[in-house]
Amino acid sequence: MLPRAALDVEAAMSAVRPVCEDVRDRGADAVREHTARFDGVDLATTLVPREALADALAGLVPQVAAALREAARRARLVHEAQVPGQSVTYVADGSSVTERYVPVARAGVYVPGGLVAYPSSVVMNVIPAQVAGVGQIAVASPPQPSSGGLPHRVVLAACELLGITEVHAAGGAQAIAMLGYGTRDCERVDTITGPGNVYVAAAKRVLRGIVSTDAEAGPTEIAIVADGGADAAFVAADLIAQAEHDPLAACLLITTAPGLADRVDAELITQLATTRHASRVKEALTGQSACVLVDDMDAALAVADAWAPEHLEIQAAGAGDLAGRVRNAGAVFVGPYAPVSLGDYLAGSNHVLPTGGTARHSGGLSVLTFLRGIHVVNCTEGALAAVAPHIDALGGAEDLRAHVRAVRVRVGETVAAGTAGATGGEATGARSVPPLRHDLVGRAPYGAPQIEAPVRLNTNENPFGPSAALAREISQAAAAEAAALNRYPDRDALALRRDLAAYLGHGLQVPRVWAANGSNEIIQQLFQAFGGAGRTALGFEPSYSMHPIIALTTGTRWIGGRREADFGIDQGRAVAAVADFRPDLVFLTSPNNPTGAAVPLAVIEQVCAAAPGMVVVDEAYAEFARDQDATALASPRRSRAPRWPAQRNCWRPWTRSGRSGTS
Description:
The chain has 663 residues and is α/β, with parallel strands linked by helices.
């Protein structure tokens, strides 16, 4: 028998069920009483004050804050790749099924607070929910008497860093029941995730069906498959690291080399002497840990699959190939430099994983935990008529005649031979929907409303037409060019770029001027060159509405940051957003629709310094700015910043074409 601590959730349910039912019946009052009983803290409300979150982050050690930001960035990248796209399947001519993935409206995240504070659990649970698009996220974590009845400060800091504003000081079964049933302090959620002890697991089981939950996480575990070439110090360190979590942690070494087992034993003794939580580690290593000697790597993988560990390390020759053969594991760590500790914090993978052998049938926490697939069925009259005989047969076989009648009332009692081929869709002869790109299905095209008015200001119409003199000049210029209409125009627009450089000033040279027909063409080209599938763009909204639309059409993920109440952009928040998301493109509108607000040069320069990719300053309305020297084009730093293009619309009377220039 391979070692593993028993997690008797069923036994715990007898103690947990009355607590959950009490919270269901009495709400916040019950939560308060059980919190005082189990945690020794009497709280009038579970809600953590907003200022406590901000204070916790402000007081966080800078190195820890930086590590959490990097962990969040990496986790976000990995989980963004998990988001399934909308798919459309054409099952027959005129009949399709679209699969949409829709996030739950509200999620509850439980962050344990027992032996150790776990800010990394905030990252691992919140990031997938945010990436999935969950609108509201509530975090619950046990109150600490030493923290004035609030959860661990580092947990609060992690919540603030990730933008979580609803945090509850509640732990154990009463916290799970609070999230699932709702109280006056906490609206009920749709999904609950997060690790915890056996009572938390039991409470999740009680509420299953009321809400969806992630797996019932038990004591942590690690299996290491290693050959004789493995470094014994690495193996011992990883066993100790896992045992450090919990006296019930399970640690298993599977090796083909008896000599390695001896060396690891020696290393365990040496490293334990300087281990901080030595007593906890010893209890785990002596309680439910073992070394399994096998003949070859085939046998080693068979043992690992049978045990189905939460974490599986492979420290052996050909580790990558061996990892590809693993069937049962929460996560696999390949080679000597991919320890479980990396996965716990900064691999980008999720560390909420199946335990207790449940990796045989379950996976770890992911974006899919917070999404629901919805099938959207479309069918034309002709397509329904074509399939009606099959519905007749199946409905009759199941004695569900009303099902048959619901179809026949639409298409009649008989179907002429060849109907499907003849109609090709609607009875009126309309064609079926063309195979539009899946992520664009159902979206409306962009367009300004055509308002019946003398002057349409919404489309930037000028209430004053050109003067008679200007109209004559335009006619004369057009006539002069008419004789050359058979020749290809100035491909590189050198004449226009020279005029733009002279007009815009600030020492611009022609090679640094890029001309296009309107700002949308420039934006499109920027997205095509620097965006695309797998890349991200960040903007601060409200902003120019075409930025996210063109991002969508080019397959670029759009991240909508927020402006302040006065429509300005806070420098600290903007730089933090750039650090968190690491976008390939950043768009700063200064000034542009719809705010007309100019962003201070200091903010633009700091964002540019922090951004890894292009920073586009969209100055569509810069000609109307009060201070022309405060625009991005005027900044002396711009000429030394190749990743900082400034985009202008030229509105002055010398050109009525609305041409755009970017430098």
